[in-house]
Design a protein that fits this description.
The complex is a heterodimer of chains A (728) and B (214). Chain A is of the alpha+beta class and 728 residues long. Chain A is built from 24 helices and 28 strands. Helices cover 34% and strands 24% of the residues of chain A. A 7-stranded mixed sheet of chain A has the order 8-10-7-11-9-12-13. Chain A has a 7-stranded mixed sheet with strand order 23-25-22-26-24-27-28, sandwiched between helices. Chain A has a 6-stranded mixed sheet with strand order 1-2-3-6-4-5. In chain A, helix 10 runs antiparallel to helix 13 and helix 18 packs parallel to helix 19. Chain A is globular, with a radius of gyration of 26 Å. Chain B has one domain: Class I glutamine amidotransferase (GATase) domain (Rossmann fold). In chain B, strands 2-1-3-4-11-10-9-6-7 form a 9-stranded mixed sheet, with helices on both faces. Chain B is globular, with a radius of gyration of 15 Å. The chains are: A alpha+beta (728), B alpha/beta (214). At the A-B interface, helix 8 and helix 10 of A face helix 1 and strand 6 of B.
Chain lengths: 728, 214
Amino acid sequence: MSDGPPLHRTLGLTDEEAGRITGLMGREPTDPELVMFSLMWSEHCSYKHSKPLLAGFPTTGPRVVMGPGENAGAVDVGDGLAIVFKVESHNHPSAVEPFEGAATGVGGIVRDIIAVGAKPIALLDSLRFGTLDSRRSRFLFRRAVEGISHYGNCIGIPNVGGEVQFDERYEDSCLVNAMCVGVVAQDRILSCAARGVGNRLVLIGNRTGRDGIGGASVLASAELGDDDAGKRPSVQVGDPFTERKLMDCCLALSEAGLLVALQDLGAAGLTSAASEMASRGEVGLAIDLDRVPLREQGMAPAEVLVSESQERMLAVVEPAKMDAVAAMARRHELDATDIGEVTGTGDLEALWRGEEVVRIPSRYLTDDVPFQDVPRTPAPVPVPIDLAAVPEPADPGAVWLALMGEPNVASKRWVFEQYDQLVGANTMRRPGGDAGVVRIPGTNRAIAVTLDSAEWHTELDPYAGGMASVLEAARNVACTGAVPIAATDCLNFANPEKGSTGWRLAESIRGMADALTAIDTPIVSGNVSLYNESPRGPIYPTPVIGMVGLLDDASTSLGIAFDLPGHAILLIGHGEPRVDASRYLGRCEGLPPRPDPAGDAALFRLLAECARQRLLVSAHDVSEGGLAVALAECCIAGGVGAHAAIPAGRRADEAMFGEGGGRVIASCRVENVAAITALAEGAVGVQQVGTVGGDDVSVDAGGSVARVGLRDLAEVWEGSILRALEAR
Amino acid sequence: MSAAHVAVLRFPGTLDHESAARAVQGVGGEPVYTHHEDVALPDGTAAVVIPGGFSYGDHLRPGALASRTPIMAAVRQHAARGGRVLGICNGFQILCEAGMLPGVLRPNASLSFICRQAELEVADDGTAWTGGRREGEVLSIPFKHHDGAWFGDPGHARVVLRYRGENPNGSMDKIAGISNLAGNVMGLMPHPEEAQDPLLGSVDGRVIIAALIA
C-alpha cells in the first residue's frame, strides 16, 4: 500500500464508519466491498441525516396503493388505475456539467417510474440558478434547459410544468429537480423486491462503462469546492434513444407478465439496485461480474459494481421465461444479459474471474446505515418588516411593469417552449398556468400536477415555509379544479452539519407534515439532496413539493385565462397580503404571515366544487408579485384587459403587490357569483373585485390606481428572460 | 363495410404513433401499426402515416436512417401507385430524406427546440390535404421540433401550408407543409394528430387526417 490516506477516507467514509463496517462483517472488507459501503452509506443513497426526520410525514390514506420505499409512490385514481410519481434531484451533476447532469436527471426519474411498471405520462422540473447577470448562471441555466429538452423530447414524455427561480444563493449550487408521473393498472404494479430462489437476475439496456463512478458519494454527498473539474468523470452521459427503447421494452415485458421484479440502476449503479432488490425481498443475490456487458476494457470489479452508466434496468425473471425476455429485448434492439441469480443466503455476492470478491449481507448496506441526528441549532426568527421603512412608490404602474419583468416573476416561456408539452395528445393545460393538466390516457379523468417551493419563507421561518411550500403546490393544483390527492418531496438543503441547516430541515419537515395532514394529502415518494453549499455559503433551504390532483371529469378543468369582457372577477380565499419576503420587497427579509392550512383546505373544496358545477371560467393562484401580477397574468393569458378594485389594507402598494395567505383570482359569468358565494357558505371569503374587459389592466387599491396597457404588460412579462440572456 | 386501413409506421424512436393512430380512428379509419423492418405494407392499406418522434434518436440527421429502412421501399411503391402518404414532423423529415418530397429540414433559426401553437394558412387549396378549406383559411395546429426550417425549391412541390404571422423557425417562405406535385404525398412540421380534440384546444387537424381516407 502507498503512504496516502487509507482507502475508506478517500471514499468519504469516516474512521468510525470504517470501524463499524469491520465490526459488522467480522473481518476487514475487501476493496470492492468498502467501495460499496461508501456509496450505500453516503447521504445520497442512505439519507442517513434525513431519514429519521422523514418519519414525520403522513404516508398513508385511502388512495395510497404504494407509499415511500419503492422506486416511486402510487395512488388510486379509479378505473383500476394508479398514478405513480416521484421527484428527484440531480443538483450536483448539473452544477458540474449542466447539459448531461440535467438530461440524466430526467432519465433517472423516468426509470423510477418504469420500474413500477408504469407508463410515463408527464414530466416536470423545478430549477434554481444564480441571477441572470452572472455569466456562469446564464450558462448553467441555458445548458440545463437544453439537457432537459434534449432528453425529455427524445423519449417522448410531455413536459407539462414546473418552476424556475433565480437567486444569487444558487450561484454555486444550482438545483435541478425532475418529477415524472406515470400510469399503471393497479394489478400490474411491479415491486423491486427480488423473490424466488433460483430466479435469474437480468441486466437490460446499456453496456456498463466507467461513467459516473462514485457520483453519489463524490458529487452528491459533499460540498462543491473550487477544484470540481476533476469530478467531471463522475457525471454520467445520457442516451435518450436507448432510454426510449428501454422504456418500451420494460413496459412490454411487464405487460406480458414476464417479470418478477424490476429496479432501475441509478446512484451507485448495480450495487444499489441489487442491494435494494435483495434487502426488500429478503433474499440474496449472486452476481457474476464477468457476464456484465462492458463498454470498455480493464474495468476493476468495484468499477463494474458502482458504475452509474445510464439506461440500465435490473430484472428478476423466472428461468422458464428467460427466452421470452431475451426475444423481447432483441425486438427492442437491446441487450438483456443473465448476470446472476436469486439465492437464499441474504447476501450480496459478486464473482470476478471465478473468485468471490464480495459477500455482504445486503441489509448491512441498506438497513445498518449509521443514522445521524442533525444538530438543531435554531436561527433567530426575524421580525416583521416595518412598513413605514419601505418607501411608497409614486408610480405604482411603473413598479408593476418592473415586477412583471423581474426574472422570477416573468413568463418562463423561453424555458417551456423548448420542451415537447404535447406528445401523447393528452395535455389539456400546458405549462404557463398554475398546474399542468393531463388526461389519464383512455379515461375521462385528468390529473393536475405542479412543483413548488417557498424557499424565502423557509429560510426565514422554516416551519411556516414548509407549510407554505405544500400549500402553494396544492393551491396551484386546486386552481385547475382538481382535488389534491398526494404529494412527493425533494428536500434541497445545504450541509446539515453546519449552522442552522439541520434545524431548518427538521422544522420545515414538521411544517410540511402538518400542512399535508391538514389537507389530507400523503407523501408517497421523495428524495433528499443535502450539501448544496459552497465555500461562499449555503443555498436557501428549498423543499420542493410535487403535488398531484385529480379531476374526475377532465372537461371541467380550469385554466388561468380570463375569457370574455363582462365576466366578473372574484378574489377567493383568506389572508392579508404582506410585503415581507415578497418579490415586491425584493429581499428575503421580514416575517411572512403564517399559512392557514385549514383555510386552504376549505378553499380547495370550494374550487373543486365550483369547477365540478362549471361555475367558474378561470382561477389563478395569487403568489409572487401579489394580486396585481396575478391579475395581469390572467389578462395576458386571455388576451383581454380587466379592472379590479380592492381595499387598500395597510397601504395600497402592499395590497397590490404583497404576498401571503391563500388567495385566488377567479372569473365567472356574472349570474354565477351568487351561486359561488352560496357554496362558500361563509367558510371561504368570496369578493367580487372587478370586471373583465378593455385594453388596459388596472387595480384600484382604496383610491390609489395602477393602470398599464395589456400589450405593455405582456411584452415585458413574456420577453424578459430572453432579453436577460441576450443582453450579454 | 370495414374502415379503410391506414398504416402507421413505427421506427425505433417513433413517439407519436399512438396519437396518430387515435386521430385516424377519430376520422373513421383503421390504424395498423407497421414495423420498420417489414418489407410490405399491410394488406389493403389505403394510406400511410409516418408519425413524429426521434427515429433512431436523430442519429446522423433527423430521418436519415429511417428513410433507408425496408418499409420505406414499400411506402415508395405505394406512393408511386398514387396512394396517399402523410409525414408529420419526423415523418416529413423522413420523406425529404427518402427523396419522396423535395428539400431539406434545417435546424430552427433559434437553434433550439420550439413547442408552440401555430396558425397555419392554407396556401394551396387544390390538394386533398386541406379538405374543403379555401386558400387563406387558417388552421390552429401545434408544432414542436428542433429541425423544422424547410429549405428547397418550391417549384418542385406544392406549398400547402404556411405559418401565419411571424416565421417561427426560419423556414423558407414561412413554409409549414408541402406536397409533391401530384399531391398524394404530404409532409408538414406541425402536428395535426394533436389538434383532434376540443379538450386539447383545437380540432383543426382533423381535415388533414381525414384526407388520408377521403
